[in-house]
Amino acid sequence: MKIKERTPDQYKESCHRKVVAFVGLVFLTFFMLLSSCAHAQQPKFGTAPTKKVNKTKANVKKFFKYSTFYGAINGGNSISDVDVFSITNGLQTNTIETPFDYSITFGVRKIARLGYENRANVFYDGTEKSYSDAATIGKLTGFEFLFEADYTRQQGTNFLNQHHFLRYVANRWIAKVEYMQDGFADIQYFEASQRYRHKLGKKLSVNIGAAQRLSEPYGYDPLEEWMLSNGNLHYTDLAIQEGYSVQFDGQGGETYFNPAGNEVATSTEIWEGVIIPQVLANYTEKKRDQLDQTIQYSVVVGVDFYHYTKTFWVHSWGNLMPYHIDSGGDYSYHSYNNGQWLDYSGGLIFGYKFNKSLGVFIEGKYNKYWNRNWHDFSVGVNYVIF
User: What pLDDT is stored for residue 40 in this prediction?
Assistant: First the structure.
């Protein structure tokens, strides 16, 4: 699909409409959250006390009560240096060095720990992995939140990961606003949802509602217009359009130059194996950045189950988006998928202690949004000798 040229005014108007619509939904969700907090502060019987209090200060204190602010820097060595040998002009040795790994984390969280969760560290350092953070419903009703940003360098590649959410769980409804950016999985979106909740006993509940997501147009392939009828890619023409050039010496040799006029390759092998992958990566990133964000309106249904004893526990949850409104935009995912599709996420935390010494556990979560998949899991056995 080729990008349709739009004037700056048309581009601004499109962005403005989408942002206004999405912000309106976010404000609606926040209004539900704040209304619930205000209602909770009213006395159960009689009128409110006449004692003068600083309501703003009291609300802020209540909002952050039992929350933890944290920041940490973690690091360590990466993969070892690699020696690369060449005999083109005699024996030559080049050493590829990979800088050390590190992460810089800042965050604040207010999430009640479930029965199976054990606070192993005295301090939060950003390396903790809590699968239950992805669950739709926490241990308690009321307000919970997480704001965390993590800048990481792993094996020489930099990633920015962010996970922020505000959620309010009541007996009959759930409201949540979430922002997710996983640089390693190449996924980034902003989501708001409003759901009706129905309890089926004390351990199981189901929910249904609406979800709104703001993201880049996943599914768009910038290289599609460069594909040939035989399935190959016309990569040399693409590179020339991007400013690269080729100079032939008339004797079967060629030299390749980048847009700045610097020599980058003197053989087809280097051109196709080293330079072209860089050209394609830069081109696709540039084309994706030229597109404005899209809003996806979806129906969402979910289920949550929680059972805990000291020797056996199960916590599972799942969310399914089976229907999505087709906005008819140029880059709607409907056009790439030829109709409806299923987006879903889920998680499972299972633990069983056979006796005081032996125990097994399974923990993990899986997400599939558009054409992106990301997951984490952990399986293990513990045996303690007394």
Answer: 47
CATH class entry, domain 67-220+291-383:
mainly beta
Instruction: Compute CA distances 142 → 33, 110, 164, 189, 222, whole Å.
Output: 9, 11, 17, 25, 44
Torsion of CA 215, 335, 320, 183, to 10 degrees: -30
Separation CA 362–CA 307 (nearest Å): 15
Tens-digit pLDDT profile for residues 181-221: 998 888 999 999 999 999 999 999 999 999 999 998 888 88
pLDDT digit string (tens) for 7-29? 445 544 554 455 455 555 555 55
Among 285, 159, 169, CA closest to 220: 285
Residues of the chain with CATH 2.40.160: 67-220+291-383
CB 186 within 8 A of CB 201: no
Look up residue 80 and give its DSSP letter.
Answer: P
Contact (CB, 8 A) for 211 and 193: yes
Answer yes or no: are the C-beta atoms of 302 and 195 closer than 8 Å: yes
User: Cβ of 93: how many Cβ atoms within 10 Å?
Assistant: 8
Asked which of 124-128, 163-167, 312-316 is least confident by mean pLDDT, the reply is 124-128
In the structure encoding, which two tokens stand for residue 146, read together? 């997480």
Residues 6+ positions from 306 with CB-CB distance below 8 Å: 114, 137, 203, 314, 315
Predicted structure pTM score: 0.75
